[in-house]
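Something for you to look into today, if you have time. Could you write out one complete protein record for me, on any chain you like? Leave the record below and I will have a look.
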Amino acid sequence: MIPTALDASGLVITALLFVTLVIRHLFFVERREDVAWLLLVTLAAIPAGAVSQALLGVMGQHCTVRYDLYVFEIDRCFGSPSFALGKIVTAHHGLWVLLATAYGLLIQAMLLTFAANVWLRGHRDGTRVLVAFLLNLFAALPLYWLFPVSGPFYAFASFPNLPAQVAPHLIALTAPPNGVPSVHTSTALLVFWFLRHWQLGRVIGIVFLVLTVLATLGGGEHYLFDLLTAVPYTAAILWITARLPQAQREAVTV
């Protein structure tokens, strides 16, 4: 499980971004409208994340059936990577802190990606990025309800040690059912995709993606299956948001 105490680093980054934008808005006239938009999104980011987590908590209490043991059986075909990485991560405290910090920077990664696109590519690209991230967060909720999976840390008391014997069957859990797809992974994929226009952005995107993958598996939050399903989920998000400008243009034409 990723320790929530390290979420403080994300709050510090958000606060610094907010203060920077306030100073920029107060003392610089250029692009004040863009700065005001970035301020508004930054203010709304934390509550939006809190709403998403609250919905997951409610789902966890009302939907107590989990398919974890079936997903575990699928992962066994790949060598149960979450358990293998979990042993490595728990044995190296420095790696654990690094991965836990990266895992807790989900909202901040979205904010910085959005800000980069607004500032360097304009409102149109910024709007697509914002819609993609919001859709990414909330479109997964009905999928979680249809196929609830909590993750190896919650389903197996022995994690990161493999259980002796597992017979696939439904189990009862109240941990959040946010396994399939892994929204942390889909978010990291979106961050890389929307930062790919710049060399530094590509480096940041790849590093964040790698750290996120290692954190989701090594922390016991996800199975490999969850990460694999995040790929077509991300592709669907990009497909939908790419067609929004076209739909708007067609509506105006009509």
User: Anything to note?
Assistant: The CA atoms of residues 89 and 135 lie 31 Å apart. DSSP finds twelve helices and two strands in the chain. The first strand starts at residue 65 and ends at 66. The chain has one domain: 4-253.
